[in-house]
Specification:
Number of strands: 15
Largest sheet: 7 strands, mixed
Order of helices and strands: EEEEEEEEEEHEEHEEHE
Structural class: alpha/beta
Oligomer: single chain
CATH superfamily: Ribonuclease Z/Hydroxyacylglutathione hydrolase-like
Helix content: 10-25%
CATH topology: Metallo-beta-lactamase, Chain A
Number of helices: 3
CATH class: Alpha Beta
Shape: globular
Bound molecules: zinc ion
């Protein structure tokens, strides 16, 4: 199995280096953490990755998933590709990804799922490594919300995740949002029981790692797959899997 190197950037932002490719997902925070430069500070410094084959994915246009600074990177990175959800203004040379569609890019297959919030989620078969980035595709069950709204949400999420039934996914980036209170694990739990996920990486928890780590460690339903969820990371923190 190919080794992959994952760095947490912020919110749903990650850098992932695997094989000959370097992926960036949902980049938004361009301010380095703790005065550290580049990846160690949770930011992309294009000079640091200038020689790599770079793929930049944007799941939707919300400010905490998208920063136009990504388009400046192409001045320094010769091999850079943009894969943008279709709610982002189109851009010359970028692949515009529409939910429900599939694309071939540089020997990869990219299936685009429809988010239950805005935009898209991505299933990427990079040949040797299958990667899922959920964007804001999640089971957003809010306490106090209209029960019909919550029921529609449940149905929409389950329908979309059904597309991943028994799909072998090496690395899945999934929202686990503490603002959902006791419902924060609904989305990841359903994914883990539907797809065949080797490793899940929580995201979308802002700085509230503790609540996420606690929930994963103690909720009884995580028992069967707990060991396959990575603890929430700090900005700039990297793991090799
Ligand atoms: Zn979001």
């Amino acid at each position: 199995m190919q080794k992959s190197h994952i760095t947490y950037l912020d919110n749903s932002g990650f850098a992932l280096e695997t094989g000959e490719r370097f992926f960036v997902f949902d980049y938004y925070n361009n301010h380095p953490a703790g005065g550290r430069l580049g990846l160690a500070g949770g930011v992309i410094d294009p000079a640091e990755i200038a020689g790599k084959n770079v793929f930049v994915f944007v799941s939707h246009a919300h400010y905490d998933h998208y920063n136009k600074v990504i388009f400046q990177w192409e001045r320094q990175i010769k091999n850079i590709h943009y894969i943008l959800s279709d709610d982002i203004p189109p851009r010359h040379g970028a692949l515009i990804a529409t939910p429900g569609q599939s694309y071939e890019l540089d020997g990869m297959r990219i299936d685009v799922l429809r988010s239950t919030d805005e935009g898209a989620a991505f299933l990427i078969d990079a040949g040797g490594q299958v990667i899922y980035h959920a964007g804001d595709l999640n089971w957003w069950h809010w306490e106090g919300e209209d029960p019909r709204w919550n029921a529609d949400m449940a149905a929409a999420y389950q329908k979309e995740i059904h597309r991943l039934k028994d799909v072998a996914i090496d690395i899945a980036f999934v929202p686990v949002d503490p603002r959902l209170g006791d419902n924060l694990l609904l989305g990841v739990d359903h994914l883990m029981r539907t797809a065949d996920v080797r490793l899940a990486v929580p995201m979308h928890y802002s700085a509230n790692q503790k609540a996420v780590a606690n929930a994963i460690a103690t909720a009884p339903q995580t028992g069967p797959y707990r060991s396959r969820i990575v603890p929430p990371l700090r900005r700039g923190q990297s793991i090799t899997v």
